[in-house]
Input
Amino acid sequence: MSKSLKRVRAALDAAKIDTRIMETPLARTAADAANAIGCEIDQIAKSIIFQGQDSGRAVLFITAGGNTVDATKAAAVAGEALGKADAALIRTQTGFAIGGVSPVGHLNPIHTYLDPRLLEFDVVWAAAGTPHHVFSAQPHDLRQISNAQPFDFTSQ
Output
């Protein structure tokens, strides 16, 4: 088991989240993950990270798989202009590589926002630290463990 996957498992266990971690074929996109799991694309909780242009900090947006982060709305939520986060910032902040960024188990605290669309489901699925692993969670549990604030920051 990879260090990243172990960190996600430990975070879920510590929060007493009843979950299942599942290995999938490569699931770098929400559509790939949904097909592998057999769920709706919006049940995939994508972890999208931007970099604050003023603060330099990483900001995480957990969004439903069929939605995209609207840059203008996201900047308003974050309170600063946002730009693309590079692989080095993402790895330093979260401990995960692009393609397997989990919404939980980060190396460092991160400001996190949640797409309210995810709250409409009984179960959602998120990356478990690798491009080949996902975990299931009730949306309210995911919100709690990721310390995410729900906001409308998407376009469909």
Summary: The chain has a mean pLDDT of 94. Helices lie at 3-14, 30-37, 71-78, 87-94, 139-146.
